[in-house]
Prior knowledge:
Chains A, B: It is an enzyme of class 1 (oxidoreductase). By secondary structure, chain A is of the alpha/beta class. Chain A contains twelve helices and twelve strands.
Amino acid sequence: MKIGIIGGGSIGLLLAHYLTEHHEVRVYVRSKKQMDKMAAEGLFFEKKKKLINETINVSLFSSWSAEEELIIVAVKQYQLPSVLEKFRESNRLKNCTLLFLQNGMGHLKLLNELNAKTIAVGTTEHGANKIKDNHVIHTGDGLINLSVYRGNNVSELAELLAMPIRNFPFKFQEDWNEMLLQKLIVNAVINPLTAVLNVKNGMLLKNTHFNYLFKEYFKELSTILNISNKEKTFRHLEDICRKTSENRSSMLKDLDEHRPTEIDAILGFVLEMAKEKQLDAPFSENYYHLIKGKEYEGGKN
Amino acid sequence: MKIGIIGGGSIGLLLAHYLTEHHEVRVYVRSKKQMDKMAAEGLFFEKKKKLINETINVSLFSSWSAEEELIIVAVKQYQLPSVLEKFRESNRLKNCTLLFLQNGMGHLKLLNELNAKTIAVGTTEHGANKIKDNHVIHTGDGLINLSVYRGNNVSELAELLAMPIRNFPFKFQEDWNEMLLQKLIVNAVINPLTAVLNVKNGMLLKNTHFNYLFKEYFKELSTILNISNKEKTFRHLEDICRKTSENRSSMLKDLDEHRPTEIDAILGFVLEMAKEKQLDAPFSENYYHLIKGKEYEGGKN
Lengths: 301, 301
């Protein structure tokens, strides 16, 4: 089928590489510089020291016109508003299935006004690192979870799930809320802690004091987010720290490179929930402002 | 009068330089290396690019025998136990006036069993930087507050106060509890925040997000420590941040140089108070463990 990928970041480029195997793919990017580079040189995909150079269809997002049956939105949450604006202007959106891969849950309310056929949401568990505008490294095998958020015509999602790609599995999840919550709590604990402390993920388990905070902070978050199976979720969280122990989290990398972080999508949402439920959130509040302050410092350099 | 200064750190060396003007001073140090260097080369005292080299009497603390009328203890709080052990062994301590210059308030309970004539406590507001074992720089003019903790024979303190030294004032405070609390709250806010964030003191006022935490954290501390005039204390705290805006706090420097910090003397004490009063202390707990964890990381390098 025809698939449009919106976003030329690490996940967008990863999707472009893998989905090309079975589908007709086009990547939509924001910058002319990136489009020109990809058009001229193709995409460089690297995994375990093996480098593949391939041709990928690429266009500017400003020229997008909803021609694809499935549209995967792989931009950061804070870039979503401009994408949604263009979606709303399109009179062909009702024929499309949209799949949103953002972190957090704050964006869900923005999706309600879209008149697409089906709206799906997903979470990615891949490790990927974009080192140039047209060069992505697949650093960690994972999967993409997806779930239907609205609509019941799921033929495009069914097709995606029915045509497995080696080393790039999709997994269907019945409960979108549970799926996003699980990812949110992982992001909300690991990202801010590692970013404030400037440590690799594994240190949250190894350092006694950091581990104490890790546990206390999880307690606060799981209460605010009303996680049903706290023990299981906590084991999942520990497991991810262990598997990614040598990684620097995405938020830490964002701060390192003076980019905006996803703190609003992650802890901003948690703080809204806490306010709504009138719950105390001292840890969340603390880490929210520590990261916002660090973002602000970084932006000045 | 005869004054013994215990501790060859930055404050100990600063005291040695200034008190020599009117008194017979001897510095007691722990390391033979430092003693030998000071005995051979003298003390280098530097202020505003002016360097003074002078002879200072120096001995090993292990040879100390309570010969001085006034003994000023200028070691870190975590080094106090070994000093107190030697004090307890001395049968001449009852003739001495002791002045303790430690941060925090956790050490007060340790002082109760000493049978000295008078026990005074003090807080220092000087900026000083020891760059070699026998070289100290006076980086910021300040004063030493002192107050009587126990005993009423204050002749030695009166003599100290009666003989003013240029650029090195002593100030008498009626209420030792109030005096130590004021210093504790300044240390408890500025030190952990700047050390976790790796920023200069002034950034706690300039960065909106850090400033928000600065205020919230002060609220928690002033409740736990039962500060009487919260507004005045807060203005004092802001004032110190402003005056020292270009400084890196002592705790930040300790972490930078992989030394132990004074976190137990400062926030350890606050957490004990909170527990005693059954008060929530999420910020204090959080910063306590962030610093302890960072100390642990640093210690491994």
